[in-house]
Specification:
The protein is an alpha/beta fold. The chain has 22 helices and five strands. It is elongated and about 115 Å long.
Length: 450
């Protein structure tokens, strides 16, 4: 009886050993077949077979890995990440799971699902395996940059370009960090390298344009912005920058053309749309197309009330809706403007003797009306008419007073469509020069035949 029991136990033991021996032989073959199916693009077959394997052995790292890859190829990224996280937990890289490709893949998936901290851990582990891999330094730098850790990001980008001087993207990111840190010469050097290595690097061209514009090299900046505008994501903002360059060159008509193009392709209310309209309004203001300028300021105000000085601009021009004479004073052509200034001078009881253009308006030399004071010596008076919206500061009053001294004129007057600063008023109080602000000008215009 005992012998029979011993034989039975031995048989069972042999069967168990045979089962596990057979399983150890067959399972790898089945995993190998899954690899072959995956290479053939048969994701569904891999998913089905891998799940069957995992029902028998839930800690089969190879099956989890291949299932994860199959899910990724089948565009089921979240399920793929779950499987690869299980592989990470198991931590067995003795089979078909190669640790370096695995960690690269799981890091990519972590980034897709905004798990930057987990991705960072993976790339740091990869650096231990491959410390001379420039791509890992670049990707770590990008994670730090996205988290506004520019100090850390810059160090990793620098290491990336040291290891791989031809890494155009790393040069670009490093250049942008230096640009934001206001280290213009270093930023320019990195960005120049970036476009040399990759001429279609439109982001780098855009910031090269910004650097050139900041350095007042508008011609070269326009060329750089022309290149960056070839990319859809930089087209509108490049056109806005080109418009800004043309404004700096006083080429308002060309600037208007570029800015109107920017508006057409910008989303309503976007930064590009608002800045394009703001600069467009500036062009129209300079060209005395005040109504058009006001239209753009009003549009901006409806979208973003605190946008730059738009509210102030609208306040300065609010009289245009109620005072046609002031509107004409601000908007008429140059020759007619000078004519109106002469008529205002005559309303003040003065005879015009001479006139010339000055920045923002015109200057008239006049004398007291001789019909009123026949026996008196006619004393000249220097009058400057300024059709501007900015507050007149002390330097403008001082400049007029200096011109009076040069011409030997003892009395002066400044008439403006805006206001005078406190310092300007203080300066004029102790000099023989009078100041007429917008309200006084409006009163005078009411007496003029327009």
């Amino acid at each position: 009886m005992g012998l029979i029991i011993a034989i039975i136990i031995l048989g069972i033991a042999i069967a168990v050993v045979a089962y596990f021996l057979l399983r150890s032989i067959l399972v790898p073959k089945r995993v190998d077949s899954l690899q072959s199916l995956l290479r053939q693009g048969k994701q569904q077959a891999v998913i089905k077979a891998a799940k069957q394997l995992l029902q028998k052995d839930s800690r089969n790292a190879d099956a989890h890995y291949l299932l994860g890859l199959a899910y990724e190829q089948d565009d089921k990224q979240e399920l793929a990440l779950m499987e690869l996280k299980t592989v990470n937990d198991i931590g067995n890289f003795d089979g078909i799971v190669d640790e370096v490709p695995f960690r690269k893949k799981i890091a990519e998936l972590y980034l897709k699902f905004n798990q930057a901290e987990e991705a960072l851990k993976e790339y740091l582990l990869l650096l231990k395996r491959e410390p001379e891999n420039a791509d890992f330094y670049f990707l770590i730098g990008k994670i730090f940059e996205d988290r506004n850790r520019n100090d850390k990001a810059g160090g990793y980008y620098k290491k990336a370009v040291d290891l791989d001087p031809r890494n155009a993207e790393a040069h670009t990111r490093l250049g942008l960090l230096l640009y934001r840190a206001k280290r213009a010469p270093e930023a320019r050097a990195e960005l120049d390298l970036a476009v040399k290595l990759k001429p279609e690097n439109y982001e780098a061209w855009y910031y090269i344009g910004k650097l050139l514009k900041d350095n007042r090299d508008c011609i070269a900046a326009m060329s750089a912005f022309e290149k960056s505008s070839r990319a859809q994501e930089f087209k509108a903002k490049s056109l806005v920058e080109r418009g800004g360059c043309l404004i700096s060159m006083n080429s308002f008509e060309r600037a208007i053309s570029e800015l109107e193009r920017a508006i057409k392709i910008s989303e309503a209310g976007s930064n590009e749309d608002l800045y394009a309209r703001y600069f467009l309004a500036h062009c129209h203001e300079k060209m005395r197309h005040i109504e058009r300028a006001v239209e753009h300021w009003e549009y901006i105000y409806t979208k973003k009330r605190n946008f730059r000085d738009v509210a102030e601009k609208l306040g300065k021009y609010q009289e245009l809706r109620t005072d046609d004479r002031l509107k004409d004073f601000l908007t008429i052509g140059h020759d007619e403007f000078v004519s109106v200034c002469k008529r205002v001078t005559e309303v003040m009881g003065l005879d015009v003797r001479d006139n010339r253009d000055v920045e923002g308006g015109c200057e008239i030399i006049a004398v007291e009306n001789t019909s009123k004071w026949r026996n008196a010596r006619a004393m000249p008076k220097l009058i400057r008419y300024l059709r501007v919206t900015d507050t007149i500061d002390e330097s403008t009053v001082r400049d007029a007073h200096e011109e009076m001294r040069k011409q030997g004129i003892t009395r002066g007057l400044i008439v403006t469509s805006s206001m005078f600063s406190r310092l300007a008023q203080d300066y004029a109080e102790s000099r023989p020069i009078d100041l007429f602000n917008k309200e006084k000008l409006q009163s005078l215009l009411q007496q003029v035949e327009m």
